[in-house]
């Protein structure tokens, strides 16, 4: 799957951003298109499943399709490949990015907003 990356350098520990990206209960705090989410089980890892409710109120099942602890995860929503999420340590914090499938390029606008929200949340910690 071809993706385009939307990234932001954030002056916060990479662990803080990783925690925000993988804590399903916090997704609605930074994801403009997410109103709620739940995880089936207790651990977010490769193969994890759950449900994500979009801001219009429609719920979809999701599954984690790639996972590198502390660094990267990708998911599918309703069995459709969706965004990739990654955190890379930098000299002054980290670079956080979303890989958006090329066919969903307009979603990059939503991802830019999510990156700003993530930065505010990470710095407020």
Q: How would you characterize the overall build of this protein?
A:
- There is one protein chain.
- The protein is an alpha+beta fold and 125 residues long.
- A hairpin with a 2-residue loop joins strand 5 (72-77) and strand 6.
- The chain has one domain: Alpha-D-Glucose-1,6-Bisphosphate, Chain A, domain 4 (2-Layer Sandwich), CATH 3.30.530.
- The chain contains 3 helices and 7 strands; from the N terminus they run βααββββββα.
- The chain has a 7-stranded antiparallel beta sheet with strand order 1-7-6-5-4-3-2.
Provide a brief overview of the structure:
This protein is of the alpha+beta class and 125 residues long. It contains three helices and seven strands, in the order βααββββββα. It has one domain (3-124): Alpha-D-Glucose-1,6-Bisphosphate, Chain A, domain 4 (2-Layer Sandwich), CATH 3.30.530.
Blueprint (SSEs and pairs):
Layout: E1 3-10, H1 14-22, H2 27-30, E2 34-40, E3 49-54, E4 59-68, E5 72-77, E6 80-90, E7 93-101, H3 108-124
Antiparallel strand pairs: 1-7, 2-3, 3-4, 4-5, 5-6, 6-7
Write down the Rg.
13 Å
The major beta sheet can be summarized as:
7 strands, antiparallel
Kindly state the percentage of residues in helix: 10-25%
Overall structural class, as computed from helix and strand content, comes to alpha+beta
Oligomeric state of the chains in view: single chain
């Amino acid at each position: 799957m071809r993706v385009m990356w939307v990234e932001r350098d954030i002056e916060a520990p990479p662990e803080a951003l990783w925690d925000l990206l993988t804590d399903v209960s916090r997704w609605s705090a930074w994801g403009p298109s997410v109103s709620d989410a739940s995880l089936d089980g207790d651990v977010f890892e490769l193969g994890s499943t759950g449900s994500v409710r979009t801001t219009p109120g429609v719920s979809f099942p999701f599954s984690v399709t790639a996972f590198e602890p502390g660094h990267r995860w990708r998911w599918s929503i309703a069995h459709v490949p969706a965004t990739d999420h990654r955190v890379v340590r930098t000299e002054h914090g980290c670079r956080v990015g979303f890989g958006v499938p090329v066919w969903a390029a307009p979603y990059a606008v939503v991802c830019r907003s999510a990156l700003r929200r993530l930065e505010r949340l990470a710095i407020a910690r």
